[in-house]
Amino acid sequence: MEKDLSHILNHLGEDRELYFNSVSPPLMQSSNFHFPTVADMRAAWPREFDAPLYSRGVNPTVSILRKKLAALEGAEDALVFSSGSGAIAAAVMSQVKAGDHLICVQKPYSWTGKLIENTLSQYGITYSMVDGTALSAIEEAICANTKLILLESPLSMTFELQDLRGVAAIAQKRGITTIVDNSYSTPLYQRPLEMGIDLVIHSASKYLNGHSDLVAGVIAGPKHLVRSIMKTEFMTFGACIAPNDAWLILRGLRTLPVRMERISKNGVAIAQFLNDHPRVERVSYPMSPSHQQHALALRQMTGAGGLMGLWLKAETIQEVERFCDALTRFLIAVSWGGHESLIWPVCAWYEDEQNGSSHYPWNLIRVSIGLEDSEALVEDLSQALDSM
Ligand SMILES: *Cc1c(COP(=O)(O)O)cnc(C)c1O
Question: Are 236 and 282 found together in one domain?
Answer without folding.
Answer: no
